[in-house]
Amino acid sequence: MNVIKTPLEGLLVIEPTVFGDQRGFFYESFNAQRFAEQTGVNVQFVQDNHSRSAKGVLRGLHYQIQQAQGKLVRVTSGAVFDVAVDLRKSSPTFGQWYGLELSEENKRQLWIPAGFAHGFVVTSEFAEFLYKTTDYYAPAFERSVIWNDPAIGIEWPLDGEPLLSAKDKAGVPLAQAEVYP
């Protein structure tokens, strides 16, 4: 696998080694030993999640203020524009974002360490999104930063208004959000 550092400390793009021929392809989507050796991150995942969303659905920007989750995310069908926002107040990149396409074609993954908000918008007709987390879902600690906060300035690839859940519509601006030390 190829590990690509991003401008945000700890946020990593993972490109797996894919073996393909006329029959299809095979790749190892996660190997704890190899992940630790090549990223320097030794994690234990406790929960796997799978979502399916239609084109234009935007989910995020989500995080848990306690029981913070590291996430390893990927798309198995379709494509999304995936975004992480640094919410670590002590970080020199606090409030900055990084985004990239994750798709069934490029098979890229994004390692999002605890301390970041995360979201994505579906750019294909639909997308199936999988992610592994380092802590359990804890609704009492779940928070959401509004997806279109001008203070963050995410450049979402949208054709019109996104489809949002009530929870995501109620997200708060970064200036009002609970953040990490």
From TrEMBL:
Its job: Catalyzes the epimerization of the C3' and C5'positions of dTDP-6-deoxy-D-xylo-4-hexulose, forming dTDP-6-deoxy-L-lyxo-4-hexulose.
Pathway stated in the Swiss-Prot or TrEMBL entry: Carbohydrate biosynthesis; dTDP-L-rhamnose biosynthesis
Quaternary structure and interacting proteins, as annotated: Homodimer.
Descriptive protein name: dTDP-4-dehydrorhamnose 3,5-epimerase
GO cellular component: cytosol
SUPFAM superfamilies for the chain: RmlC-like cupins
Site location (Participates in a stacking interaction with the thymidine ring of dTDP-4-oxo-6-deoxyglucose): Y137
Catalytic activity field: dTDP-4-dehydro-6-deoxy-alpha-D-glucose = dTDP-4-dehydro-beta-L-rhamnose
Residue numbers annotated as active site: H62, Y131
Top-level lineage group: Bacteria
Assigned protein family: Belongs to the dTDP-4-dehydrorhamnose 3,5-epimerase family.
Species per Swiss-Prot/TrEMBL record: Pseudoduganella ginsengisoli
EC number from the UniProt entry: 5.1.3.13
GO biological process entries: dTDP-rhamnose biosynthetic process; polysaccharide biosynthetic process
Pfam families registered for this protein in UniProt: dTDP_sugar_isom
Keyword vocabulary terms for this entry: Isomerase
GO MF annotation, one: dTDP-4-dehydrorhamnose 3,5-epimerase activity
Broad EC category: isomerase
